[in-house]
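G., the chain you wanted modeled:
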Amino acid sequence: MNEPSLPPPTSQPAPADDLSLVSNLVFDEIALGATATIQRTLTETDIQLFAVLSGDVNPQHLDPQFAASSRFHSVIAHGMWGGALISAVLGTRLPGPGTIYLDQTLEFLAPVHIGDTLDVSVTVTARDSDSHRLTLACACTNQDGRRVISGEARVVAPTEKIVRPRATMPEVRLIDGRGGIRRLLDAVRPLGAIRVAVVHPCNEASLEAAVDARAAGLIEPVLVAPVQKLRAVALAASIDLSGITIEDVPHSHAAAARAVELAARGKVDALMKGSLHTDELMSAVVAASGGLRTDRRITHCYLMQSPAYPRPFIITDAAISITPTLEQKADIVRNAIDLAHAISVAAPRVAILAAVETVNPGMPATLDAAALCKMADRGQIQGGVLDGPLAFDNAVSAAAARIKGITSPVAGQADILVVPDLESGNMLAKQLEYLGGAASAGIVLGARVPIILTSRADPRESRIASCALALLLVRRNAKAAA
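Predicted structure as tokens:
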């Protein structure tokens, strides 16, 4: 084929502003030997993001312990991560926008480890003027000059010039929503399953949660519900109830009463809310005749893990106490400290939250906070370090506390956040979960047995984590009583 007169080989298109524009080279501008290169350093986030997008969760790429025992001795990139970089050169540099990918061969010659820097290049080795097709040699070479990927691509080059604003990429944040849950499950599985009365699990979500927790080795469920209704839900959801004990009762109110009776008689170690309303279950729990009351107020704790905070933390009370008094807040704090001890926080830092960090007689939450701290000073609340009032930013951000001149052993590193009332606590917890990517588990304390209390909208992971918390508390209480 007769080649037309061509310009000398070019390295890459050079728009007026390469940071804000992306442009191409049309077929007639591309000579044999033309080349383009990008450079990229592999990070752990690159590997995780590629695994999320591709679904390739091979432990060689994601599990450092497994990878250390492999032939490569450490975590390595997915092979196709390098292939994706070659595609990036073709689509943005040579030929650039408008390129049509036809085929690609790749040979993986060496592993790419975290921290390796690759030069990713394509070089034109053949061109067909009739079809506007190009053949390009492709290579990825690491910082030591070793070629790790080699291959060949065939593309159709664009014939029209394209210059477009460079797309502004969205910020991508990977959230390990299950990491804390996995660690919790790993910690409690050796403790052995506890017997749990699951109260009226007459929808798919609550019934499935009980069966999943059983499969995870956390609970041995006793399903307290109308048996015909229960079996209908199981049939519709293809849930196998083989080997699970069922207590047949006529309705949800009877289910709550029967579950409380089982707990009071020591037949079960904990209760778990099913599809009935929280008030219906808790009315049976707090009834004087139920036998589950103690000298502590019954309160709720969210155990949360947020990607923006370096440790798990507790929010309380966001589900039971609507407008707690000072005396009730003292029990809210005591119960939360007990939960913190159960998850191995020996001296939890307790932030008593308000809208401001100074005592204001017109803001009752600040007065309660000051009183709670003085109660701790006098030994009326033990086992934790209290400070308040603290605004939310001062409780979780050391920088915010420094800016406001707050010197405190709690500010910026709180383990427990005590909210002024249920409304503020519930909104805080739900905001962290739905907008902040936090994972959560819910548990009720202060009764003779833990109560697994989750929302109907909670995901499966949250329900299982709540069961794990109950298991932890039951075993800890049994050890303390021995």
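Confidence is low (pLDDT under 50) at residues 1-5, 7-17.

Shout if anything looks off.
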